[in-house]
# Entry
Amino acid sequence: MIMNFKRLIKSIHLLAILSVFTILLSCKKEGSITYPTSTNYGDNIFTILDGKLISEESYSFEANLTKNATLTVEITNLSEKVTDPFKQKPTWGFDFVKGWKAGNYINETQTFETVQVGKNDFKIVFVGTNGACIMKVFENGSLDPAIIKNFTW
# Structure
């Protein structure tokens, strides 16, 4: 009877160890994200402090991701409506996209999502005068922004 009890305890112990090991292996580890300060197309928009951007100057939109990392950026245009039919509302444009998927510009907002591990970078330019926007950065699927920046140009 004592031998059966010892075997039962060993079996339970082994089962507990295997369960913990299985749980640890099945947990998806979050990747990490870094933002270099200055890159291919100028200062990195992620590392610039809130404040004034220079219209028509190019900036990098660079984030470096490890495995299991995701990044979504939402930029909302806060510029006032332009009443002069010959002037365009201040906005942004981009080029040389590498590692990002750019969403459509809908209701004054555009979303950008990373699509690869490693370096994700493109050139972004803010155009026009008296422009303003808010940029929200969502890391690893979070619903709360990790970074919020307010810019004018």
Remarks:
- The chain is about 15% helix and 40% strand.
- Confidence is low (pLDDT under 50) at residues 14-26.
